[in-house]
């Protein structure tokens, strides 16, 4: 591999999609290359990536199954949100040295015409937070929980991937609403963190066999809101415990993303619908920027206030080294990360 | 059988639940008996049933599976809504000869303390309408479609059991909202009725093999609202055609009520959830009187106005003879009825 290990001012390192994975992605599904840095035209800016966000939805973009967004083409750069610095500007709204959030992809350099950039100023304090607690995962947690889930004080809220980017925020926001919060996570260390640091009332380890029994014991008054970002056996444990009028915001199904075929029967589709009917449950999928992008300011103000007051704890799992990106992403899909996964692609100033 | 064929002033005919059906109910699951007429105490009224409503939800009450309502006990009277006349009153709010809607059950005579009675006056014009277009099925159609489904002009609305009590109203209300309406019904005669008389844009016959292909052809712009009261293969045909942001009010699953076990695999539970996620769909179960009973007046005014203006067509399938009740109910579960199923239990005046 001739791709430079560090970010340079002369080459554009890129992670390309080499092949569509069948099941779990492997390193060979990606190609790490270096090309020339693109040249911005009039009305465009050249962006240099400092932090890249890795998120479960990217698995969907690697497949060509019909989805809400176009798949990444073979040999195209993998998509993703990033925190970038404006290196060159031919756009009147942006000046060099300014930081922005951009959908820049898995690469050192990208060109933008200025649409869909979020300004972070010249000297942002914690710029990578714009990819997590103050960005897409934060908005997902906030809107999915509050707008679709509508938790009431005293109700029981359950969330999977409890120490992940979204789940950790869902649980903490639910605590701020006065709810009882039960998390589900993989491993004792994460569970302890959810309770001790994030303040969840309980957190169960889904790697143990008796998840359904334990969840029933902890949720002794049933479940009013299940924030669904996992699916699979976590949902199976939740389903029988849902109360009448329960709400299920549905933002992800990470346990299913690597599945190559449907599970064996029986076919529980009618069982699920029967439960939704009998218990008068609302289940609603959402794609955060499509459905709630227009409410970003409202979210951002609330979250910044909570952060300033110390009411929200935020944990980043920061990978140093852009060459680690594919491995880190593969690990994300099996829960190897602990906190919001972010790749440090380059230095603050090159 | 010594039970009188006609309603009398001396005996109370009753349909009891004899045994819990496994699969489709049979006549032997019911017992048609005659007992003494109950005596109302102070503060109570004696009601005589004139019309009895037969509705799919009653199948659920015959089972002891956990549901939103208690099952009917073995040897208890089958439950159901009815239009009744007050025969004796020891209650200051009710006088003899007054008509009411009551949850009187499958019997000639019942006693009420006056709670949950809906007054219809002394000389109602079409009293049986209070069991259909102006009653529970009407409220179900109106609230499920408008409050959960929120159809917009130009959108495509699909409804199963298209000539049934609920489906026929869903489609007509959707037409009044400016929607394209596609019904699904069993048999050519019902489909023709849905288009010619109810004004649906199209109606497909689910007894034909090519339902999925035909539905895809008719719904050439996809489906925005699917009002779910059927389930099974109708839902299977609808699922791939649902548009982004589709809404699925879920009020019934009549095709599943007689099922004794889940269908063979694969297990499509995750497939359904994946579709809800990717397409940002809302699916919401509701039980009409629990969720919308407080909005009955709003519904009633709108529906009476539509009826008066001739904008809503309402078809009753009236069974003459209380002794036919169980057979008629069994037929309802397989779509033998054509319109809202009502039993004439007794004469207007005895």
Automatic annotation (TrEMBL), chains A, B:
UniProt KW keywords: Oxidoreductase
GO molecular function: any one? oxidoreductase activity, acting on the CH-CH group of donors, NAD or NADP as acceptor
User: Record's SUPFAM superfamilies?
Assistant: GroES-like, NAD(P)-binding Rossmann-fold domains
Where's the Enoyl reductase (ER) domain?
25-343
Top-rank taxon: Bacteria
Record's protein name: Oxidoreductase, zinc-binding protein
UniProt source species: Pseudoalteromonas tunicata D2
């Amino acid at each position: 591999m001739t791709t430079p290990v560090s970010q340079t001012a002369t080459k554009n390192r890129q992670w390309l999609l080499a092949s569509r994975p069948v099941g779990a992605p492997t390193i060979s599904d990606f190609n790490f290359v270096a090309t020339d840095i693109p040249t911005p035209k009039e009305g465009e800016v050249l962006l240099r990536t400092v932090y890249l966000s890795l998120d479960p939805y990217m698995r969907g973009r690697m497949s060509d199954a019909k989805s809400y967004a176009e798949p990444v083409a073979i040999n195209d750069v993998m998509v993703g949100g990033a925190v970038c610095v404006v290196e060159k500007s031919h756009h009147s709204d942006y000046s060099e040295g300014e930081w922005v959030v951009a959908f820049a992809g898995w690469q050192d350099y990208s060109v933008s015409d200025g649409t869909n950039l979020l300004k972070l100023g010249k000297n942002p304090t914690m710029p990578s937070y714009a990819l997590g607690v103050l960005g897409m995962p934060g908005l997902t947690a906030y809107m999915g929980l509050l707008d679709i889930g509508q938790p009431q004080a005293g109700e029981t809220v359950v969330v999977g991937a409890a120490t992940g980017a979204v789940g950790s925020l869902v649980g903490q926001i639910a605590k701020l609403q006065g709810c009882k919060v039960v998390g589900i996570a993989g491993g004792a260390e994460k569970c302890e963190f959810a309770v001790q640091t994030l303040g969840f009332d309980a957190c169960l380890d889904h790697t143990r066999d008796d998840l359904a029994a334990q969840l029933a014991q902890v949720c002794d008054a049933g479940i009013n809101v299940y924030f669904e970002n996992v699916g699979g056996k976590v949902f199976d444990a939740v389903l029988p415990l849902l109360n009448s009028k329960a709400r299920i915001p549905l933002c992800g199904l990470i346990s299913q993303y690597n599945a190559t075929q449907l599970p064996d029967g029986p076919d529980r589709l009618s069982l699920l619908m029967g439960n939704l009917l009998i218990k008068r449950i609302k289940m609603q999928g959402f794609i955060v920027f499509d459905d709630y992008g227009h409410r970003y300011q409202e979210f951002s103000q609330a979250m910044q206030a909570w952060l300033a007051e110390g009411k929200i704890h935020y944990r980043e799992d920061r990978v140093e080294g852009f060459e680690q990106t594919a491995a880190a992403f593969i690990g994300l899909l099996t829960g190897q990360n602990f906190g919001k996964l972010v790749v440090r692609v380059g230095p603050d100033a090159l």
